[in-house]
Amino acid sequence: MSRGKYLSLPEARKKRQLDRFAKEHPSEGDAEQFESLLGRMSKPEAKTPESDDQTSKKPEDRED
Predict the structure, then answer these.
(1) Does residue 21 lie within any of the structural domains?
(2) pTM above 0.70, yes or no
(3) With the C-alpha atoms ordered 40, 41, 43, 46, is the resulting torsion angle positive or negative?
């Protein structure tokens, strides 16, 4: 248990007081920067054109 006036996260979860915990521990992050980063991270990867199949062959299987 916490000893001060603030809830710890485990206490807030047990007591179902996450709203109070959030008010006591405000975010200091940059919402715009976070959204931008999250958007870049969540974009599907661009499909690359098929290679000429030489990269998937073992060196001894290649026809030079």
Answers:
(1) yes
(2) no
(3) positive
